[in-house]
Amino acid sequence: MTTAPHSSRAAGGSGGFPFLPPLPLFLLNPILKRVVHKIAADNPDMFDRLGQHRHAYFLIDPVDVPLMLYLRPDPEALDFRAINRRNPPPHIARISGKFLDLLTLMDTEQDGDALFFSRDLIVTGDTEAVVCLRNALDDVEDPIAESVADMFGAPGRMALNTLRRMAENAQKRKEAK
């Protein structure tokens, strides 16, 4: 298995989020590492639900931002980083969708199946691995988005509230169609 490229290309600032300043991946990745290690430390039991898939790599593809996320949910070799979307590294499964839909999946008790069946999220590769990942994330006591926002204090909570309002408005627009 090859490793993901360490790109310094900017993230943010395109797609559905023009208000985001460009952020080089080499600055974003330490933040993602801190986030995933905090979630893992707060929820060590979630890894039991992954079984053999804890050693797998997952590609999370928010299609409306200029980067992808690469996750290995192995507590012995935890890895979560932003990568350049031009050359995705090897992965067992890919979860693609708009950023706000992916956030909704992580932020609420919403049934992930509804997002998959509505085609708002697309899974390719090993769907059993994705189901195991989703079950593991369901075991997390507090919504992951809230835990991440809390790591950054008041600015993090304000950003999450803004993103939640954006997701609600996007959902209302979908329902109105």
Q: What are the segments in which pLDDT stays under 50 over at least 5 consecutive residues?
A: 1-15
What is the element string, with H for helices and E for strands?
EEHEEEEHHEHHH
Shape: globular
Largest sheet at a glance?
Answer: 5 strands, mixed
CATH architecture: 2-Layer Sandwich
> What top-tier CATH class fits best?
Alpha Beta
The overall number of domains is 1
Distance between the termini: 44 Å
How are the strands of the biggest sheet laid out side by side?
5-4-3-6-7
What is the radius of gyration?
16 Å
Total of DSSP H or I helical runs spanning 4+ residues: 6
Fraction in beta strands: 15-25%
Helix content: 40-55%
Average pLDDT taken over every residue: 83
What class, by secondary structure content? Answer: alpha+beta
CATH topology group: Nonspecific Lipid-transfer Protein, Chain A
Protein name: Putative lipid carrier protein YhbT
Organism: Rhodovulum adriaticum
Pfam families: SCP2
Protein topology:
Blueprint: E1 10-11, E2 23-24, H1 25-42, E3 58-62, E4 68-72, E5 79-83, E6 93-97, H2 99-107, H3 112-117, E7 121-125, H4 127-138, H5 144-151, H6 153-176
Parallel strand pairs: 3-6
Antiparallel strand pairs: 1-2, 3-4, 4-5, 6-7
Helix pairs in contact: 2-6, 5-6
Structure description:
Residues 68-137 form the SCP2 domain. The protein has 177 residues and is α+β, with helices and mostly antiparallel strands. The protein has a single domain (10-141), classed as Nonspecific Lipid-transfer Protein, Chain A. The protein has six helices and seven strands, in the order E-E-H-E-E-E-E-H-H-E-H-H-H. It has helices at 25-42, 99-107, 112-117, 127-138, 144-151, 153-176, and strands spanning 10-11, 23-24, 58-62, 68-72, 79-83, 93-97, 121-125. The chain has a five-stranded mixed beta sheet with strand order 5-4-3-6-7. The protein has a two-stranded antiparallel sheet with strand order 1-2. It is globular, with a radius of gyration of 16 Å. The model is unreliable at 1-15 (pLDDT under 50).
